[in-house]
Design brief:
CATH class: Alpha Beta
Bound molecules: guanosine-5'-triphosphate, magnesium ion
Number of domains: 1
Largest sheet: 4 strands, parallel
Strand order of the largest sheet: 1-2-3-4
Order of helices and strands: HEHEHEHEH
Radius of gyration: 15 Å
């Protein structure tokens, strides 16, 4: 990674951590949630092959505003139907009706990964017309589009 790009990313990360917000990261098994949490917190990709039992907890603030991210393995085509259903079930909950949502198609470094348009289609994101949804294609491994993800989170902080 170039040093200018790295310092930009470090700056975004520091902005992000001066804000108080609560982010919930949801996704199917092995979509890369823990890896992303590590990348956001430390900037380092650590090969995380240990599945999380229960939930992983980074930091919490009492004044936190609630935002949500939904992680999809964009290279695992067999799981997209299940991801679509789980997302639909989640978004039908009345308590989540006003929560901004960012969908991340992770692992875009893999050769068969869907494009961002492919993720939008596979998850039928256009059917949620009443809700604020953004969708990015990212790679926790190669740190692709982690900058715009941090920007989105910063913008949605209180
Ligand atoms: N190629 C590639 N592999 C990734 C990426 N992100 C995560 N992985 C790999 O995907 C596997 C699962 O990652 P985890 O972060 O453990 O996934 P998780 O969503 O936390 O999984 P559970 O805790 O079981 O729900 C690991 O082997 C990671 O190294 C990525 O951007 N690219
Ligand atoms: Mg995990």
């Amino acid at each position: 990674m170039s040093s200018i790009f790295k310092s930009l990313l470090d700056w975004l990360r520091s902005l992000f951590f001066t804000q108080e917000m609560e982010v919930t990261l949801v996704g199917l098994q092995a979509s890369g949630k823990s890896t992303l949490v590590n990348v956001f917190a430390s900037g380092e990709f650590t090969e995380d092959t240990i599945p999380t039992v229960g939930f992983q907890y980074a930091a919490k603030s009492p004044r936190a505003k609630f935002t949500m991210k939904f992680v999809v393995d964009s290279a695992d085509h067999g799981k997209l139907e299940a991801a679509k259903q789980e997302l639909r079930n989640l978004l039908e909950r009345p308590t989540l009706s006003n929560v901004p949502l960012l969908v991340l198609g992770n692992k875009n470094d893999l050769p068969n990964a869907l494009t961002v348009e492919g993720v939008i289609d596979a998850l039928e994101l256009k059917s949620y017309s009443q809700r604020e949804i953004a969708c990015y294609s990212v790679s926790a491994k190669n740190q692709i589009n982690i900058d715009i993800t941090l920007q989105w989170l910063t913008k949605h902080a209180p």
